[in-house]
Write a structure and sequence with these properties.
Order of helices and strands: HHHHHHHHHHHHHHHHHH
Number of strands: 0
Distance between the termini: 37 Å
Number of domains: 1
Number of helices: 18
Radius of gyration: 22 Å
Length: 352
């Protein structure tokens, strides 16, 4: 999530598209280091979901987070940016999921709903069948949009849909089922770190090279798509790095978990404020004209936004805890889980 915040800060503060020379190159290298954030999140989701027991209440929690912040943050953004409120914008605030206000939330929720079915498919396939399916998906949804024009791709959104998330889910499932941890831990972490950095510099260099060849900016950044081979390899490399690293100490792990458990809320809270967050609420854009001041401004801005959003979410949780739990809603969750993901007998369907 810190990487996601960095990506948004770079884009909205003017660091990427309003600077030139070595300053611009530096920010695009930073962009290259953070761009696999979304792919990495989906690998984590797939790796720990393929063998996990589905809980529909987790989907409900995400919906509550979105609805809790969508209207207020969008209204604040409109006021600070001077936007006029229209019926369409108000509708998007009130129904952010249906209106695709948050593209990532929509894609993730769709994947979450069908993940139990994907997991059943994975466990039903033989290793050879699974390998064929995974290779086909990677060739069709990753290699093709990387090598050929974007308009030829099956998913022209650069991987911002549930269809690409499904590919990453299958990839993570393969890592979980057929790549034992004891084999992975034979890989030295320094090798994975170096590979990740090399891939990041290759990504930045590809843009620089195409610009030198007088290729348009829009085409020069084509390899920065989430479905790019380079970005997918970055995400896999970084994910494997965390798998082979030594576990954190108990105290450090407790701190990390305390900070990270509300990361999804960080995304929802800050996303609507992106147009004004890095220019109005935080003056990050004033300092990005130089590498030193720009890097420090981005670093501290990202940390401040992350911590403030976590505190806001903790306050919301404390307020919601004052209300009694809805037993009818809990019963509905149990019946939903039993009908679709645990018990497929006729009796279960009738009870629902």
């Amino acid at each position: 999530m810190l990487m996601v915040l960095t990506l948004h800060c770079l884009a909205k503060s003017g660091a990427l598209y309003e600077q030139s020379g070595s300053v611009n190159v530096f920010y695009w290298i930073l962009e290259s280091l953070c761009i696999p954030a979304v792919d990495l999140f989906m690998l984590i989701t797939g790796y720990f979901s393929v063998n996990a027991r589905f809980r529909s209440r987790n989907i409900w929690r995400v919906l509550v987070i979105v609805w809790s912040y969508s209207f207020l943050t969008s209204l604040l953004n409109a006021q600070l940016a001077g936007y006029s409120m229209t019926a369409k914008s108000i509708m998007r605030m009130l129904i952010p999921i249906i209106s695709q206000k948050y593209w990532f939330v929509n894609a993730w929720l769709a994947l979450a709903v069908i993940s139990p079915f994907l997991s059943r498919l994975i466990t039903a396939l033989s290793k050879a069948q699974y390998r064929f399916l995974l290779c086909f998906l990677l060739l069709f949804m990753v290699l093709r949009p990387t090598l050929f024009p974007r308009e030829w791709a099956q998913d022209p959104s650069t991987g911002q849909t549930v269809f690409f998330f499904i590919v990453l889910y299958f990839l993570a499932g393969w890592l979980r089922l057929y790549v034992p941890l004891n084999q992975l831990r034979r890989i030295r972490p320094i090798i994975l770190r170096c590979l990740y950095l090399v891939l990041a510099f290759v990504l930045a260099f590809s843009r620089l090279l195409m610009l030198r060849l007088n290729i348009s900016e829009g085409t020069a950044i084509r390899f920065y798509g989430y479905d790019s081979v380079i970005v997918v390899l970055q995400a896999v490399t970084l994910f494997l790095l965390f798998l082979v690293m030594k576990p954190l100490s108990e105290n450090t792990g407790r701190i990390v978990n305390a900070l990270s458990k509300n990361s999804f809320a960080v995304y929802v809270i800050h996303f609507s404020l992106n147009p004004v967050l890095w220019r109005v609420l935080l003056p990050t854009s004033r300092y990005v004209s130089k590498i030193g001041s720009g890097f420090l401004a981005i670093f501290f801005s990202v940390c401040i936004v992350y911590l403030i959003c976590i505190m806001i979410e903790e306050l919301r949780l404390q307020l919601f805890a004052l209300f009694p739990r809805n037993t009818h809603l809990e019963s509905l969750f149990q019946k939903w889980d039993a009908l679709f993901f645990e018990d497929t007998s006729p009796d279960a369907a009738q009870s629902f």
